[in-house]
Amino acid sequence: MSGVQGERVSLDLLKQKMADFAKERNWDQFHSPRNLLLALVGEVGELSEIFQWKGEVPKGLPDWEDEEKIHLGEELSDVLLYLIRLSDMCGIDLDKAVLRKIELNAIKYPVSSSKKQSNTSTIIANINNDTASG
Ligand SMILES: Nc1ccn([C@H]2C[C@H](O)[C@@H](COP(=O)(O)OP(=O)(O)OP(=O)(O)O)O2)c(=O)n1
User: Fold this and answer.
1) Please, are residues 77 and 105 in contact by the beta-carbon 8 Å criterion?
2) Is the ipTM of this complex over 0.90?
3) Domain residue ranges of the chain, discontinuous segments joined by +
4) How far is the CA of 54 from the centre of ligand 1 (A)?
5) What is the pLDDT of residue 98?
6) Ligand 1 atom closest to Cα of 39?
7) Topology given in CATH for the domain delimited by 1-92
């Protein structure tokens, strides 16, 4: 993935950018794990506000204005940046942790059982639709 300046975006690059950003401003003192967690939760709140009262929205957000999508990108970025910084300040290697977690998820939710479950969900949805339409 490459960013606006053609730079390849990676967790490591973002971690380094956040470290430089804090250092240049002498903000390392404020970037404690607890402060960062609260900042992260605050940004998740701002992200939620964008969807608040809109009801369900179709994937790809086809009806949204460009401006709204830009705003959404900003809030998603704030969440990501604080998450990366929080991991760094907790001494967590997020590259390793996230790949391990994906493996754990695959073990917990094997493909075979999830297919069975989604078939069941389709059958139940069809029964509900039939009942609703009389
Ligand atoms: N002490 C701080 C303050 C900000 N930031 C960085 C990380 C976030 O990406 C962004 C958050 O900035 P704001 O708190 O100004 O939040 P918003 O950009 O969402 O602005 P607003 O809340 O006015 O919409 O800046 C940071 O690293 N450390």
Assistant:
1) no
2) yes
3) 1-92, 94-134
4) 25
5) 98
6) 14
7) Helix Hairpins (1.10.287)
